[in-house]
Give the backbone structure.
Amino acid sequence: MAEEKVSRRDFLLYAMGGWAAVGLGGVLYAMYKTWEPLPEVKAAGVVKFDLSKVKPGQMKVVQWRGKPVFVLRLTPEMKKCSNRVIKNEYVVVVGICTHLGCIPNWEPDRQIFKCPCHGGEYDACGVNTFGPPPRPLDIPPFKIEGNTIVLGEAGPEYEKMMKG
C-alpha cells in the first residue's frame, strides 16, 4: 500500500472543520444551559408548609413559585365550603385576583378577601362574591402528608377537589 500524502490545503480544511465542530458544541452546550432552570427556580417548584402552625381564624402567606398562597384555617363560625376545603378546616388559594392580578387583603372582621385595586371581594373560601373578578381564586396543586401540605405536587385530595 502506498501512503497518500495529505496536502497542506486538506490539512487546514480538516483542522478548521475540527475547530468549527468544537465551537458548535460549545454554542449548543451554552444554549442548553440557558434553557435549563436555575437551581433556585427548581427548588421553588415544590414548597412544604406545616398546617398545624395556623391557628383557627388565622391566615398565613406562603411563597410558591413567586406567588403568594393564602392558607386560612376556618373557625366553626366561618362559612363552610366542602369543595374548596382541605382536611375540613383549611382553605388554600393562590392570592392573586382573577380580574387584574392584584393581591387581595384578608379582612378578618368581615371574613373576606378584598382586592384593593377595584373592590372585588372573595369569601373565606376564595369564591368571588362581589365586583369584577370573573372566577374564584385559584387553588394550587397540592398533596397532603400528615399535617404538611406540599404545594406544587398534585395529590389525590387535589384531584378530587378539581373534579368536584
